[in-house]
Amino acid sequence: MEHSGEDRPAVVIRVVAVAAVGLALALGPQLARGLVAPLTALVVAAFAYAALLAVAEFRGWRLLPPRVATAIDGGLVLVACGLTGGAESIMVALLPLIVIAASVRGGAVVGRLAAVVAGAGFTVGSVLGSDADVPLADRWLAGAWWTGFLVAASVLVGALVQMLERQLEAAAVARSEHEAFLEERDLRARLLAAQQARLDGVRVVLHEFRTPVASLTALSADLAADRLPGPSRAVATRLLAEHAVHLRDMLDGLADVAVTDGSPIGRVRARVVPLSELADAVLDAAGVAAARRRPSVEPEGAAVRCDPQRLRRVLTNLVENAARHSGDAPVELDLRHADGVLVAEVRDRGPGLPPGQEGVVTAKGVALGERRGTAGLGLWIVEALVAAMDGELSLEPRAGGGLVAHLELPLPAP
């Protein structure tokens, strides 16, 4: 069955009112005016009616529409007024509750109509049910006074209901405007974030162009001036080819920024990469002199399947930082692959990091030491790439001085 539509406060008030009337009659039998039997029957019937509506409310049954229940309540109260003294009946105190309920449930017009009807009914009860010693004028006066009181109560309750409705409408409008503001703010934030991501992508690509372009410039100048002997020319030619491939990959990444969501790391292009070749390419790209190189690959001949452009960008940035901060000291690059995990360590003998700066230095725009004032993108790029590859990067002080960049990446074997 459907819900009755009654609210629980009304149900509780009805039960309490009937119980109070029964208690009053029990404590003051004189209120019955000699009509104990009919009043007792009325109270029992009213209590049964109130209890039935209470059970229906708590179980969610539909027995009576709320307006019908209010009308029955009013009829019972008027009958009780007529049987307990008419103009002098204390039961009249229940009539304002009936009018208030009608005003709340039906609005101002229904409430005022209920007040007039209740007042007229009480007037009839006063004229017909009052004791013989009560003058007729007093009976009419009591009916008129309570009718006016009930109408005034209905007007007041109607005004309060209208005020509450206006406040609820204003609150609904304010809530709607607030929700619209929040949606607009969220949309603006998403647009700004997307724009910032695209700008970051462009900055990343431009930053990554710096090393290969500088190397290409130097190699091209040496080759054009014929300053390189035969073996060196072969190495330079190989480096030119590697840088060209790297630049092509970077341009692909720039294209990704233009056509995707603005991610600064581009799309994944996986292929098989021998770790020994990767180590040489990273050291070449970072411009580490042969005398300072300390590469190590375990196991010998190991290879992984990965996006070489991403992995090379990570390692090149780390090796560049190590070479730049360690003077003429060697730069160690260890690559170990086992159980589907690539462990890479870049070790240097530079000044290391100030205490507490291990996490700060990877933030965008942060540059420490002699690099203060630069763009500060290198380690931020590394952090973003490592996160995109589901890896972990830690920067730790090295025993004896320097820094250890420890990187772990889940990369399968070919």
Automatic annotation (TrEMBL):
One of its GO terms (molecular function) is protein histidine kinase activity. Keywords: ATP-binding, Kinase, Membrane, Nucleotide-binding, Transferase, Transmembrane, Transmembrane helix. Gene3D superfamilies: Histidine kinase-like ATPase, C-terminal domain. Its EC number is 2.7.13.3. It catalyses: ATP + protein L-histidine = ADP + protein N-phospho-L-histidine. Residues 204-413 form the Histidine kinase domain. The keyword Coiled coil does not apply. The chain crosses the membrane at residues 12-28, 35-56, 76-102, 109-128, 140-161. The keyword Amino-acid biosynthesis does not apply. Pfam families: HATPase_c. This is histidine kinase. It comes from Pseudonocardia petroleophila. The lineage of its organism: Bacteria, Bacillati, Actinomycetota, Actinomycetes, Pseudonocardiales.
